[in-house]
Automatic annotation (TrEMBL):
Keywords: ATP-binding, Carbohydrate metabolism, Cytoplasm, Kinase, Magnesium, Metal-binding, Nucleotide-binding, Potassium, Transferase
Binding sites annotated in the UniProt record for ATP: N189, T225, L226, G227, A228, R229, G230, G257, D258
Gene transcribed to yield this protein: rbsK
Name under which the protein is recorded: Ribokinase
Sections of the chain in a coiled coil: none
Location relative to the cell: Cytoplasm
Quaternary state and interactors: Homodimer.
SUPFAM superfamilies per the UniProt record, alphabetical: Ribokinase-like
Purpose of the protein: Catalyzes the phosphorylation of ribose at O-5 in a reaction requiring ATP and magnesium. The resulting D-ribose-5-phosphate can then be used either for sythesis of nucleotides, histidine, and tryptophan, or as a component of the pentose phosphate pathway.
Documented EC number(s): 2.7.1.15
Binding-site positions, K(+): D252, T254, A288, R291, G293, S297
Length: 312
């Protein structure tokens, strides 16, 4: 394992994932019988923090959970993964978040409904209380599952401290484009890039056009994750397509974006350049999609290094 440098600080939510496998999505008013149910720790920030810790990065998680059964599951998940919870707040008055995930039996594609629960009660003062840890970090990573004013405040704090910021603008929400000037790195998938730019992203040429819009609106680097086509990286001085890694049959794509972002942040913390870090993130995602679940699918460091070695 490489010598560790500065830690990563991730802000996001915990949501207990309830994943239902089914042959079809129900219409409103319709009930369908699923083939299986699985539960696991989730929430994009949680998945990213757990994945980064599994990859060997010292990882802090900033969020809020309830003092309920789901909150106890969250604490156990962070403890097992080695995620630092110095800035994990507890709210006795709000329920911990949860997510309903519907998975297609045949393709592994997914549809998700998430309720952030107690994480939405995080305050700017609680974010500010982590400023010393943020200042010591190699990068600050967050998403759009928390209220945008909290995300904007945290990104602005990290930037004021000179810490590189990584925004995974997921899920796609109205107003997220206003965060771009605070982003050293923005990492949308095709759907999120289209929501941010108004442009389709179905080819590499379209990915480059969308990246240009993201850069023009203030992001320093645009890194579009393109599923089976890998990732596209662009900045004022960089432009490169990074192919996806084939680590086996695709089982579940739910955690792919989280795996990429965790791998990318962990690689930055080790001093890798942007292209190499994005390639590392693609390798992490390539393994994650071969397994069911979100945080349980996140690979260990030795697995990623073995995959990279096979594709050297």
């Amino acid at each position: 394992m490489p010598e560790q440098r500065k830690p990563i600080l991730v802000m996001g939510i915990f949501a207990l994932d309830l994943a239902f496998r089914t042959h079809k999505l129900p219409a409103w008013g319709e009930t369908v019988v699923g083939s299986s149910l699985a539960t696991a720790p989730g929430g994009k920030g949680t998945n990213q923090a757990i994945a980064a810790a599994r990859l060997g990065a010292e990882t802090y998680f900033l969020s809020k959970i309830g003092m309920d059964a789901f909150g106890h599951i969250a604490e156990a998940a962070y403890r097992e993964a080695g995620v630092r919870t110095d800035f994990l707040r507890r709210d006795p008055h709000a329920a911990t978040g949860a997510a309903a995930i519907l998975l297609d039996d045949a393709s592994g594609e997914n549809a998700i409904v998430v309720s952030p629960g107690s994480a939405s009660a995080l305050t700017t003062a609680e974010i500010d209380a982590a400023h010393e840890a943020i200042a010591r970090s190699a990068c600050f990573l967050t998403q759009c599952e928390l209220p945008l004013p909290l995300v904007r405040h945290a990104l602005g704090l990290a930037r004021s401290l000179g810490v590189p910021t990584v925004l995974n603008p997921a899920p796609a929400v109205a107003g997220a484009e206003s965060l771009l000037p605070l982003c050293d790195f923005v990492t949308p998938n095709e759907h999120e890039a289209q929501a941010l730019t108004g442009l389709p992203v179905s080819t590499l040429a379209e990915a480059e056009a969308a990246a240009d819009v993201l850069l023009a609106r203030g992001a320093r680097h645009a890194i579009l994750t393109l599923g089976a086509r890998g990732a596209y990286v662009k900045s004022a001085t960089l432009k490169q397509h990074i192919p996806a890694f084939d680590a086996g049959p695709v089982v579940d794509t739910t955690g792919a974006g989280d795996a990429f972002n965790a791998g990318f942040a962990a690689a930055l913390a080790e001093g890798m350049g942007v292209i190499r870090a994005a390639r590392f993130g693609c390798a992490v995602a390539g393994i994650a999609v071969t397994r069911p679940g979100t945080s349980p699918s996140m690979p260990r460091r030795h697995e990623v290094e073995a995959l990279l070695a096979r594709h050297a």
